[in-house]
UniProtKB/TrEMBL annotation:
Residues 152-173 are annotated as: Disordered. The lineage of its organism: Eukaryota, Metazoa, Ecdysozoa, Nematoda, Chromadorea. Belongs to the yippee family. Keywords: Metal-binding, Zinc. InterPro entries: Yippee, Yippee/Mis18/Cereblon, Yippee_fam. This is Yippee zinc-binding/DNA-binding /Mis18, centromere assembly domain-containing protein. Residues 13-110 form the Yippee domain. One of its GO terms (molecular function) is metal ion binding. It comes from Ditylenchus destructor. Coiled coil: none annotated.
């Protein structure tokens, strides 16, 4: 038997297996918290990781007949919920491919609030469409700006117009990265 490699979804709130604390999903993947399972309250998730699925079974549930697979934790093999494969009623087809995790089988814990994915808010459209934030690296580069090839140099200057703002300072660092042209623009030092 080989070694298991488990993924971590990240996010502000993380849901894990109650028994072994293996990561299963995050709060960003929750579609609804108004479901019921055999042990009580349950959540409907868009995506879940680190689970193993059983063979397809046809089950009659409160909302009608469904084809489902039991979902078990990949680490401890405990049943944590199920996955909807097929719904016979047309109004239930939104569940297909989604996973139910039962509240009694999972624990909720704080994750990491990812500030890197938050885009800056500014009124300049060229600025909004041209920024890609990346995590800090050991060399200190905190961000990179990628401007569209058809942009004029005035949009580059607009992005640099406020040197007191940390976001603009990070963009300038990214433009100067490597001291060479960046997507067709020459960095002004």
């Amino acid at each position: 038997m080989g070694r298991f490699f488990f993924e971590c979804p990240g996010g502000r709130v993380i849901y894990s297996c109650r028994d072994c604390k293996t990561f299963l999903s995050n709060v960003e993947s929750v579609i609804s918290d108004r479901f019921r399972g055999s042990t009580g309250a349950a959540f409907l998730f868009d995506s879940v990781i680190n689970i193993e699925l059983s063979n397809v079974e046809e089950k009659m549930m409160l909302t009608g007949r469904h084809m489902v697979r039991d979902a078990s934790c990949k680490n401890c093999k405990k049943r944590v919920g199920w996955m909807y494969e097929f719904a016979y009623e047309n109004d239930q087809t939104y569940k297909e491919g989604k996973v139910i995790l039962e509240r009694a089988c999972i624990v909720e814990s704080p994750g990491i609030d990812d500030k890197i994915s938050d885009l800056p808010s500014t009124s300049t459209p060229a600025f909004n469409q041209s920024i890609l934030y990346m995590p800090s690296t050991p060399t200190g580069v905190a961000a990179a700006a990628f401007l569209p090839r058809n942009s004029s140099s005035s949009s580059l200057e607009t992005a640099r117009s406020s040197p007191d703002d940390d976001r603009h300072r990070n963009i300038n660092q990214g433009i100067r990265f490597g001291r060479r042209s960046f997507r067709g623009f020459r960095a002004n030092r």
